[in-house]
Design a protein that fits this description.
With about 120 residues, the chain is α+β, with helices and mostly antiparallel strands. Helix content is about 45%, strand content about 20%. The relative contact order is 0.08.
Length: about 120
């Protein structure tokens, strides 16, 4: 071993010999083995081990915030819209759905949806 750095000693140490190259997730930890190559010859292996608890805590925190934002916005969206606004959006969509139902049932492709200009 050429060098070692541990922010906090937690009882884990570098393995006695390098494992196969690549990364693995083991017991809430990320372990990375990367070859060090100089002039097309492997001269060593870089070993990095990282604790993933902070990342997992951040994911849970951000997920909770996102869920709170979605629930709050969906609950307030109806109360924030003016009463006539919902009607202006839903009526043309309902008319189009009715027209497509008629075309589907009667096979009459000349039926047109009415224009709503308000």
């Amino acid at each position: 071993m050429l060098a070692a750095y541990a922010r906090v000693r937690n009882g884990s140490s570098a393995p006695a010999k390098p494992e196969p190259d690549g990364y693995r997730f083991e017991q809430n930890r990320l372990r990375l083995f990367q070859p060090i190559v100089v002039n097309n010859a492997r001269v060593g292996t870089l070993y990095v081990e990282s604790n993933l608890e902070a990342l997992n805590d951040r994911i849970v925190s951000y997920g909770s915030i996102a869920l709170l934002v979605v629930v709050t916005c969906s609950g307030r969206s109806r109360s924030c819209l003016p009463p006539g606004f919902q009607k202006r959006i839903s009526h043309p969509i309902l008319a189009l759905a009715e027209t497509s139902r008629i075309v589907s049932e009667r096979q009459d492709y000349s039926v047109r949806s009415p224009k709503n200009i308000e």
